């Protein structure tokens, strides 16, 4: 039946007359005349005998004069249908009504106040005209009506008694009149379930919900605010309709919940208290709202675990992770930011979900980790401090990100060990190697590029080097450019002065040194440029920088060191 259509519903036949009179002149009516002039499209229930109802009305006489109005009193009328508490005409005329339905009722005197009337208000034998709108219907046998509007695909846990919940809601009366909304306050409603802090209907209606679930909960008055109502917004005996979105929930006894999303097959070591860890993360609320992300800053989050530098839940949740692991850490508020929340993005009492990806971790006491991949047989000579080595390497982060490689250049890397030309961890990892040996080195940041990192290397990054020693040359002690294999000549200057002119220019000096090396009497500091080493030696001996060495200028390095000792003594 379409809304707005006019239908005269005669409950019983009129008295026998030649024809039915018009609505405006009903004549002697036998029963109530009902005009259902507005019927809502959706009618979930109709008024029946014994139902409790709440409605508004205007009461007039045939001439339109008003004798009563609930609107004028500012309060709806509540009562029970069919038990004699209403005039008989109203009892009959209200039956079958839907919530929000509107009716015109014509009540004949014998179904109204009869031949007596109401003194000073309704004269005897008055026909009464009522314009009624139905606002609420319920029955003492009603139960909570719960309708699930939407539900997440995955629901690992549902609300139980004693849980603390955070939810949004719109609250309306049964006729759709809004009385409250958490959305208008821009804040969730936060409370415990099953502890008496909520009306009974909400305590029951929230049970079994998943985070992210939406429900419609219709609560009869005896499970809501009953006969007293609540303030001016909720009348007495009002059914309440709540549209609820559960944002999150937890229990005060909850610990951290871990979900291992991806664990590498090979996990040689797991993080423990005191380790320094670098990881990426997305931080969301339980409803999926993103509140923070390291990816958005293009920088890992770096911290110690188990020392109180991060929230307790993350201190616990990162224990035992492997490099490369992806893990979900669900942190209840008492192990996160508590009732106060943090900033504008983390509300009070919020459950936090961290999806983390472990990039690397180390301990400040870690040494270089050395794994020998290949070592030639008959390896008798190994590298020592001050040796000159040539080697190939591939350098990457522990997550596999390639940083540098000597293979990108035309020749191997060259360095004299122990001269601070490479990071400490690499220098250590190249010691005691044979030519042809291959190693994998895991270098912690305190033996690498430290907290600051370097160009292309993040701060506090653990580095992985694959190294292969190509060749090695025996070095010389620190501070020496050339050493004798035996005792130097007693008449060194005379032998160095090849043309016996009493002075030694650079070319004469160079020829002499090269001869000593060829004859195996001494060796230069290993270098990719021996000419430069000889030039440095000459410059050191040419003390007045006049381009030649005199007998007074020429001194052995060992003699110079001895003189310094005497001066100190």
Automatic annotation (TrEMBL):
<dbReference type="InterPro" id="IPR001179">
    <property type="entry name" value="PPIase_FKBP_dom"/>
</dbReference>
<dbReference type="InterPro" id="IPR002048">
    <property type="entry name" value="EF_hand_dom"/>
</dbReference>
<dbReference type="Pfam" id="PF00254">
    <property type="entry name" value="FKBP_C"/>
</dbReference>
<feature type="domain" description="EF-hand">
    <location>
        <begin position="529"/>
        <end position="564"/>
    </location>
</feature>
<feature type="signal peptide">
    <location>
        <begin position="1"/>
        <end position="24"/>
    </location>
</feature>
<feature type="domain" description="PPIase FKBP-type">
    <location>
        <begin position="386"/>
        <end position="473"/>
    </location>
</feature>
<dbReference type="InterPro" id="IPR018247">
    <property type="entry name" value="EF_Hand_1_Ca_BS"/>
</dbReference>
<keyword id="KW-0677">Repeat</keyword>
<protein>
    <recommendedName>
        <fullName>peptidylprolyl isomerase</fullName>
        <ecNumber>5.2.1.8</ecNumber>
    </recommendedName>
</protein>
<feature type="compositionally biased region" description="Basic and acidic residues">
    <location>
        <begin position="543"/>
        <end position="569"/>
    </location>
</feature>
<dbReference type="GO" id="GO:0005783">
    <property type="term" value="C:endoplasmic reticulum"/>
</dbReference>
<feature type="domain" description="EF-hand">
    <location>
        <begin position="491"/>
        <end position="519"/>
    </location>
</feature>
<dbReference type="GO" id="GO:0003755">
    <property type="term" value="F:peptidyl-prolyl cis-trans isomerase activity"/>
</dbReference>
<keyword id="KW-0106">Calcium</keyword>
<comment type="function">
    <text>PPIases accelerate the folding of proteins during protein synthesis.</text>
</comment>
<keyword id="KW-0325">Glycoprotein</keyword>
<keyword id="KW-0413">Isomerase</keyword>
<dbReference type="Pfam" id="PF13202">
    <property type="entry name" value="EF-hand_5"/>
</dbReference>
<feature type="domain" description="PPIase FKBP-type">
    <location>
        <begin position="162"/>
        <end position="250"/>
    </location>
</feature>
<keyword id="KW-0479">Metal-binding</keyword>
<keyword id="KW-0732">Signal</keyword>
<feature type="region of interest" description="Disordered">
    <location>
        <begin position="538"/>
        <end position="569"/>
    </location>
</feature>
<dbReference type="InterPro" id="IPR046357">
    <property type="entry name" value="PPIase_dom_sf"/>
</dbReference>
<feature type="domain" description="PPIase FKBP-type">
    <location>
        <begin position="274"/>
        <end position="362"/>
    </location>
</feature>
<dbReference type="InterPro" id="IPR011992">
    <property type="entry name" value="EF-hand-dom_pair"/>
</dbReference>
<keyword id="KW-0697">Rotamase</keyword>
<dbReference type="InterPro" id="IPR051989">
    <property type="entry name" value="FKBP-like_isomerase"/>
</dbReference>
<dbReference type="GO" id="GO:0005509">
    <property type="term" value="F:calcium ion binding"/>
</dbReference>
<feature type="domain" description="PPIase FKBP-type">
    <location>
        <begin position="50"/>
        <end position="138"/>
    </location>
</feature>
<keyword id="KW-0256">Endoplasmic reticulum</keyword>
């Amino acid at each position: 039946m379409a809304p707005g259509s006019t239908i005269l519903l005669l409950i019983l036949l009129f008295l026998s007359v030649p024809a039915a009179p018009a609505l405006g002149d009903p004549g002697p009516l036998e029963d109530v005349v009902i005009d259902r002039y507005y019927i809502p499209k959706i009618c979930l229930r109709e008024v029946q005998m014994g139902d409790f109802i709440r409605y508004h009305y205007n009461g007039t006489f045939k001439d339109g004069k008003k004798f009563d109005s609930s609107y004028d009193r500012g309060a709806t009328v509540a009562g029970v249908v069919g038990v004699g508490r209403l005039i008989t005409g109203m009892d009959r005329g209200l039956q079958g009504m839907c919530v929000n339905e509107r009716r015109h009722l014509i009540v004949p005197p014998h179904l109204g106040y009869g031949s007596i009337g109401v003194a000073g208000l309704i004269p005897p034998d008055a026909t009464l005209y009522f314009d009624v709108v139905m606002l609420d219907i319920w029955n003492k046998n009603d139960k909570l009506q719960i309708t699930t509007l939407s539900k997440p695909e995955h629901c690992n846990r549902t609300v139980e008694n004693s849980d603390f919940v955070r939810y949004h809601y719109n609250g309306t009366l049964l006729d759709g009149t809004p009385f409250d909304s958490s959305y208008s306050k821009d804040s969730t409603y936060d409370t415990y379930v099953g502890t008496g802090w909520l009306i009974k209907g909400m305590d029951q209606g929230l049970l079994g919900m998943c985070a992210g679930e939406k429900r419609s909960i219709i609560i009869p008055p005896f499970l809501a605010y009953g006969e007293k109502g609540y303030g001016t917004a909720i009348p007495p005996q009002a059914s309440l309709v709540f549209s609820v979105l559960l944002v999150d929930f937890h229990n005060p006894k909850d610990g951290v919940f871990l979900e291992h999303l991806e664990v590498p097959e090979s996990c040689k070591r797991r993080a423990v208290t005191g380790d320094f860890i670098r990881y990426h993360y997305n931080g969301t609320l339980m409803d999926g709202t993103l509140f923070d992300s390291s990816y958005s800053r293009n920088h890992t989050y770096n911290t110690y675990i188990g020392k109180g530098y991060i929230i307790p839940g993350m201190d616990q949740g990162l224990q035992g992770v492997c490099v490369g692991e992806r893990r979900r850490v669900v942190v209840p508020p008492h192990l996160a930011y508590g009732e106060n929340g943090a900033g504008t993005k983390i509300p009070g009492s919020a459950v936090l979900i961290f999806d983390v990806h472990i990039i690397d971790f180390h301990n400040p006491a870690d040494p270089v980790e050395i794994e020998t991949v290949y070592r030639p047989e008959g390896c008798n000579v190994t590298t020592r401090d001050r040796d000159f080595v040539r080697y190939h390497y591939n350098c990457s982060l522990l997550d596999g990100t390639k940083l540098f490689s000597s293979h990108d250049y035309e020749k191997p890397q060259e360095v004299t060990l122990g001269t601070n030309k490479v990071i400490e961890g690499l220098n250590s990892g190249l010691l005691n190697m044979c030519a042809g040996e291959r190693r994998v080195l895991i270098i912690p940041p305190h033996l690498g590029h430290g907290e600051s990192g370097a160009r292309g290397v993040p701060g506090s990054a653990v580095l992985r080097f694959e190294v292969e020693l190509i060749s090695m040359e025996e070095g010389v002690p620190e501070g020496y450019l050339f050493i004798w294999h035996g005792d130097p000549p007693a008449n060194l200057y005379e032998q160095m002065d090849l043309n016996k002119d009493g002075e030694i220019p650079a070319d004469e000096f160079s020829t002499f040194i090269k001869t000593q090396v060829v004859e195996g009497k001494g060796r230069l500091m290993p270098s990719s440029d021996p000419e430069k080493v000889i030039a440095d030696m000459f410059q050191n001996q040419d003390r007045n920088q006049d381009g030649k060495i005199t007998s007074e200028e020429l001194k052995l390095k060992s003699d110079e060191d001895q003189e310094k000792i005497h001066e100190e003594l």
